């Protein structure tokens, strides 16, 4: 048989390359919404027969189709539903407290997100790993009915073991526990914490688990970067904090990295649960229903502070939701835009929005770490600093250990915090969750934190960038060319 086929191998490969290439190129042209992305993938497919099509299959198809309930209030009926709806922020309330431009932001959020802007919430910033881990572990120890944890990284180190022990203890108390870890993030430590959790009786799964082989191969590049912990439907934690000892000064001392996490209560907890439970249902094919997972009525009054919206985004029906929210926020800014981001690689649209705001007279301050854990990303983002420095934006290199926080404040009134970085992966590939917060005391507190970071930071100047050796700048531009895939 092989003897008969062997003379025709060139012809078979040619036909195969044409069929695969045509199918992949047509898919890219018909599904990509950005012309540069479509042209780039078609070029890779055409110039690299067979290999290009396979690369597109693995990394280019970035839309997961999920059939899940994404808003928990869809499960509610009668008086309970009416009670939850009473916490929705009204247009009149937003106009009275924050003005018409933030009413426009509410309209934008209503149209591009799946969750409502709600009143009657509380939010507390947890500034360090020790503070965040301590608060989360304390809440887990108090869990009575149910607990769901979704995270990107859950290391099997001393902090991870502490969390595993707390979760196992909760299961032994009769608490319903579900743990969802990203398939890529679960492999950050070897051996993985998955075995330890399963041996302790915890129901655990991985998000997009078949990252090498299997039916989910086309989605190997898509990850859940969300960090959500919901306990008893009453209290939730979210932000940028992974579970690893590198963020704990107890174990890492002066070398520990920093991050910011948040503890929230109120109606927004139900929306965070809806996001995490939808991800769980997608990964584990289990709907979290019943008395253990029942919604808890907020203890605050409708119309009271703090006003918060949960914003989920990802390569499904929520694609680029965070990007749209950022574009809207930059456009309504009048006095200041304050950004803290570990990986600052905005696309052309966001850069244009930022420099346009700066040209309008808005003070734009961007704080990035001096010490970065991803050297290639740091090189790539440095390569595009000049685009903002030429247009009245200020960029600061924060001193001290690596800071993984993601903070954004507009005019000391509107804040956006959570898991999203300002880079292509967070804005288009990852599943992210953020909080839109309308509250002056909260926004002002974040601004004070950013001012403190700037007070000891080094300002990046255009002259300083251009004075560096040409070879260094060239290498940075080469890394910048690959930034959509970092």
TrEMBL record:
One of its GO terms (biological process) is cardiolipin biosynthetic process. It is a multi-pass membrane protein. One of its GO terms (cellular component) is extracellular region. Its EC number is 2.7.8.-. SMART domains: PLDc. InterPro entries: Cardiolipin_synthase, CLS_N, PLD-like_dom, PLipase_D/transphosphatidylase. GO terms for molecular function: cardiolipin synthase activity. Could be a virulence factor. NCBIfam families: bac_cardiolipin. This is Cardiolipin synthase.
